[in-house]
């Protein structure tokens, strides 16, 4: 960690060059010999990526940034704030600390946090930044988290771990057992040292597969931000043997859409099917990832269009975790019938339909945008239909 980067004139240069393109900055040249111009560029690139993802760090003076890859791999403040709300205890150890975003938010809910980071440079950066941010209840340990846990040999209220989802060649992996460290083989060790364990996994990983690999899972939180699933948070509790509760969260600019269900309830749920009624519902991405396709029907007293369409309908408007539309017209998928409707511009969504959005636009000559919403799907009679809706309610 080169602390000359924190000199006033260097910091002023970094802050005044956040907006310009880095390539144009390189052409103009960096007006400093010390520190290494490459380090200054690295700071600019990393800070740029923090403006929306990590606004607290972006706004705080004298923050030292790691390389941009560390920024890309870290939790956002939005998701870190959410997961911190799941804990409220005395001690927590973060075994894969990284840039320290999660540890920062955990420190607001837990009396003492231990942040483990194997990279000496990154650990030093995090320690500096916590001091700048006024955090005094996080201990930064520059060591492997698993070895630290064994070495400390004491009980924590919580263990948090975010295993690496890339192999030695930096390729993404899609099985929990391929992540580093191997959570499947270490879960008993974790539950030996803590009653509660929180494991963050990629949304690309299969929920059923992980459920079969882990023991004592009490809850799964499927966390989406603006309808994009960001994290799967698995909560393990020592000796827990009950049914898995799944909580879906979609954090939007207008608030939080949440829905929860038990895994077994989804398996046992019965579904009623219907042709499109007065309102149409499209589940958010967290619901879709969690696989809450059946229980949501009985829970909200709504009906499904088709087993594989994952679109829902009702005559009475309900508070639905996703988008809600009023249905204006239902048409068969027929070029001549559609032409008579006179729709030239619309927002298009497909569910359980053989054509892509681009293919539909070309075939029916529909421009993107406007106030109309078209859903191309399959109804309960296996008929291909077009549902014309007014704007999201």
Describe it for me?
It is a single chain. The chain folds into three domains: 70 residues; 170 residues, Vaccinia Virus protein VP39 (Rossmann fold), CATH 3.40.50; 123 residues. Helix content is 33%, strand content 27%. The radius of gyration is 25 Å and the shape is globular. It has a nine-stranded mixed sheet, sandwiched between helices. It has a seven-stranded mixed sheet with strand order 11-12-10-13-16-15-14. By secondary structure, it is α/β, with parallel strands linked by helices. The chain contains 17 helices and 16 strands. Keywords: Methyltransferase, Transferase. InterPro entries: PG_1098_Fer, SAM-dependent_MTases_sf, Thump-like.
Summarize the structure.
This protein has 393 residues and is α/β, with parallel strands linked by helices. The protein has three domains: 3-72; 73-242, Rossmann fold (3-Layer(aba) Sandwich); 267-389.
Shape: globular
Strands ordered across the widest β-sheet: 3-2-1-4-5-7-6-8-9
Q: Which fold does the CATH topology of the largest domain refer to?
A: Rossmann fold
CATH class of the largest domain: Alpha Beta
In terms of per-residue confidence, which ranges show pLDDT below 50 for 5 or more consecutive residues? none
Question: What fraction of residues sit in β-strands?
Answer: 25-35%
What structural class do you assign from the helix and strand content? Answer: alpha/beta
Largest sheet: 9 strands, mixed
Secondary structure: helix percent: 25-40%
Q: Please report the number of helical segments.
A: 17
Distance between termini?
Answer: 51 Å
Find the CATH superfamily of the largest domain: Vaccinia Virus protein VP39
CATH architecture of the largest domain: 3-Layer(aba) Sandwich
Radius of gyration: 25 Å
What is the domain tally?
A: 3
Per DSSP E runs of 2 or more residues, the count of β-strands stands at 16
Mean pLDDT figure:
93
